[in-house]
Amino acid sequence: MKNLLLSKGFFPESLLRPTINYILQTQLPNGCIPWFVNGKADPWDHIEAAMGLTIGGELAAARRAYAWLVQEQLDDGSWWANYLDDQPVDKNHRETNFIAYIATGVWHYYLVTGDVGFLREFFPPVKKAIDFVLHYQSPTGEIYWAVAEDGSAKKDALVTASNSIYKSLECAILIAETLGESCGENWRARYTRLGNTLRHHPECFDRTWEPKTRFSMDWFYPILTGIAQGKAAQQRIDSKWATFVESNIGCRCVSDEPWVTVAESCELTLALLAAGEHAKAVNLFSWLHQFMDEDGGYWTGYNFRDQVIWPREKTTWTAGAILLAADALTEHTGAAKLFLQPTLDNLDQSLPATTEISLSE
Question: How far apart are CA 177 and CA 198, in angstroms?
Fold first, then answer.
């Protein structure tokens, strides 16, 4: 099947069951979900795959995935960037957006299941993770992208990573408020600061390297995470649609390479839905099923110039992204709109970028 046009109320269970099983079969007995068999794992992609399991109704497996995160969480609330056989691959850095993403995964599980007990059980590791990340918020609002082994910040920020953290902060605040935890108030101030910087102060990002504007995620992540909404979101889509989207194939990873990736195409599908571009979202997602293999896994990417699958790998996080997009298009679960509309009030108060905020723990 090369095209799949999805609509509300019609989740393609039979088609996507092998994709759910692909994640299940790759998950290790301890709950870790590596990229593929014998591959590495990282916290962000592990959570993306776990959300796919939740959508697929594999709740016990999803819980094992979150339990593995708790097991591996360092005392300060962080995780290493990559793991292989439960051992960190590289202690040179810990990426803040990877660390914050647990809040998104835990809130997603709650939206699907309504399980307050799960929310309460996993709030302590969420709080530790969010407090760690917010310790590395600059006085001008952006979040430093990574932290060295000795705890020192790598003092620059990425647009996509800070947008991801912005969404994770929204989820963390919602978790805290659902449980009646007081930390949500301080987190709201940080969330406001970060949102203001993302909207109004691009000079706070990419200060020590070339801007990442060639990456499609820098284009659509502000829509996916609620920074750009309404007409602004639609204008943003229009501005680079021809640059990044290859008709009947998918979304490029970077503008200057003939390479589309399935996961970015799924995330763009979510961003299109958030921007009110439903027809474009349905069409884009329908193109991706040519990259589904017979075992239910999806190839990571495709070089359309050379007409070859590249790399020759089927990642669990790509499968997770497929399930997230399918859920959003069909409204299959209670988490279907998680990435489509911000739940918190618009807290942007156009604060000046130089105003400092409290860094109290």
Answer: 24
Q: How far apart are CA 236 and CA 238, in angstroms?
A: 5
Crossing angle between the packed helical segments 262-274 and 278-286, to the nearest 10 degrees: 160
If 0-12 CB within 10 Å is exposed, 13-18 middle and 19+ buried, where does residue 56 land? buried
Number of Cβ within 10 Å of residue 109's Cβ equals 24
User: For tokens 């997602």, what's the residue?
Assistant: 285
pLDDT tens, residue by residue, 155-191: 999 999 999 999 999 999 999 999 999 998 899 999 9
DSSP string, 8-70: TT---HHHHHHHHHHHHHHS-TTS---SSTT--B-HHHHHHHHHHHHHTT-HHHHHHHHHHHH
Q: At what angle do helices 43-55 and 96-113 cross, to 10 degrees?
A: 10
8 A C-beta contact, residue 191 and residue 344: yes
The pTM of this model reads: 0.95
Distance of CA 315 to the CA centre of its chain: 15
Token couple for 47: 């959570």
